[in-house]
Amino acid sequence: MAEPYLRMVGIQKSFPGVQALKGVDFEAFAGEALALIGANGAGKSTLMNVLGGVIQPDAGQILIAGQPVEIHDPLQAAAHGIAFVHQEMAILRTLTIAENLYITSFPTRNGLIDFEQANRLSSSVLARLGHDFPPETRMRDLSPGDQQIVEIARALLGEPRLIIFDEPTSSLTSREKARLFEVIRSLKKEGVTVIYITHLLDEVFGICERAVVLRNGETVGGGMLSQLTYAEIVRLMIGTADVSSYFRHRTAQIGDIILKVSGLNQKGVLSEISFELRKGEVLGLWGLMGSGRTELSRAIIGLDPIDSGSIEIRANGSLKPIQPRQAKKWIGMVTENRREEGLLLPKSVKTNISLANLPALISRVWPLVDNKKETQEARTYVDRLKIMISSLEQPVETLSGGNQQKVVVGRWLQRNPVIYIMDEPTRGLDVGAKAEIRTVILELADAGAAVILVSSDIDQIMSMSDRYLVMNRGRITQELPASASKDELIAAAAGGQ
Amino acid sequence: MNKTKREPFNLRNFVLSYGFQIVLALLFIFYAVSTENFLTPSNLINILHAAAPTMILASGLALVIMTGKLDISIGSIIFLTTAIGGTLMTRAGVSPWIAIPLMVMIGAVCGALNGFIVTVLRVNPFITTMGTMFILRGAALFVSEGLLVSIPDFMKKFGNAKVGPVFVDILIAFVFLALMHIFHTRTKFGRQVMAVGNGEEVATRLGVRTKRVVFTTFVLSGLFASLGGILSMSQLGGVSLHMGVGLEFTGIAVAVIGGISLFGGEGSYTGLALGALTLVIIENGLVHVGASPYIYPLVRGGIIFIAMYADSLKARVQARGRIETIEQAPAAAD
Question: Which domains, and CATH codes, for chain A?
Fold first, then answer.
């Protein structure tokens, strides 16, 4: 192959308490789509932020087309033909598409913005991405997928020679994904270098030719994807950890009925839901998006009102009906929206863990929180869940997604609920973090808790469940044993439509 | 695919978007039917006359609010600039051609002080302008020596001058608002104000020089406040010790009633004009139905509260709409 378009040599970067990049060498060629793969915290975003001028490296050199370049800020990166589509979208919700695209570079006529031209240019760049929404549409009226298209359109405005996509598909539907992949293919044809950061391996095989795997701030391998297997990449990503444990089945000790739901109805959403949950059991709630899985978990825990039906929970030895309002006393809920629903991001790990449990941490002498007790408790759960932190005072926002999710779990552990509802607990996490969360969930069940697991990731749900309830259009349509095959599950979820 | 769907008519959204216009129309009809003198040309012109200074003095503040910040010092800026202007013109005999530009400049400097504290010293805007609110009012009391400051006769005449049947300041206010509308919708700065209101961090990432934008909005807030103050002073015929008291809140109320969200990134100058008219019409109508003057503050407070509540309700409904679309988006994949 020819001389690489981009070379990064010996890139090093430290953050307080952690060396994120330990001298990474990295190359990308013109006209290729290169997958940059790694677990959360492996350093892939850091490496690309160096290239995008978002952060400055401690050491190392960047060469573009053989010439050494200095990149101190995103504008300089743009001047070198580098565009960055960030994972977190930069969206001006109340403004139009055209305004979002040209907010810093409006075409003007006689000192006023020439909206005619801006709209025309916007339409043409959107057309290049295969979209035709009117450029006067307000951003907030677009779906997240369409918003992302606008983000990509913005990256294309500067006619870049190299585009970095950071987890671009996290909010896209499969059709939008297909559209994005087409765009990437046409960019490649134009000789643009595409660097694709992801941990979704299926996508990698679909769109990229070559892969580079990072682990703990170092390049650990890679090569042409035609010569790599899924398992090999997973092994590279999570290192020495035993890959097979990810697929292991356990033998559960299932006990008495602990939760009994009968005839639950919520108009237009849930109808006639009845099931039982036993101690030590992991119950997989399986169904397609919109089948009512999330709605059911919200109803059980009392977040949404129910119209009829009863929920009974075993307390002091016998099943007793409870008011949905009280459900939180026994049920802990972990959702996919770690950031929005559970965590105070700028606050420390300690604060976040103890937050839900402050009354139990009050000093015996004063009616104030006992700092020593709080630290001890937090330390206990950090150790038990193997949360990777530099100190208890580390802000949660600096943790990887998997570790953030563990903090949420740790918070609930202290309350010691008898039932956990896990709604997509591993969404957005990488393979290694998924395996760890899985271990946590199975340990909870082994310790006697009952778990309702909601997931749209079939491998994930199959790797844990002792029993499945299949939902479709707000009803439970089928119950399947742990031995059910993937095909059976998929057929059951799709059935009756 | 992906054509933006025309939303079906939604009563809730309609009421939330046009609530105050609906209330305004109903009130207008109510007053017109139930009183004799409300719906007369001269009263309608009086309404516009009363609204004119407010429209101008709130138009800079509106920009600050659109960035998602707040300026509660404009009442004091008005007191200070009019006290200085009045003193210069009547006690020192300075020509109004010098005094008036000077007043406007002082207003801009006060705004720049606010902008500096907010953007460079990074003090919360509410606290910043609360501080300058006290300081500037104190300075104005010092200038006026605690006395009523009178203004030259021709300024008093200007305050109530008419072209045909219409007061001059009405024309000034509407020309001014039209210019502000163009400034807001058709200039890069106007659009970047809205960008900052969508989130400072996002705007910065997109390359907007956020601090410069915020600083400028504060300068304009002070500048336009002093302009509106000059009209107000001319109408009132002097500068009392209570000049500008509560005007900052009138300004905020007018903006919020007009649909300029306190959360930033939302609103227009037509809205601002309607907001100012709403407030004035309600109070004017109260006079005509013969309500006790003591209930005016009560009514005004009630309106402000309702407007704020509607604003936060609107923000919540829109946030919920967003969550719904997110949940629906992946569903389409299956």
Answer: 6-244 (3.40.50.300), 247-493 (3.40.50.300)
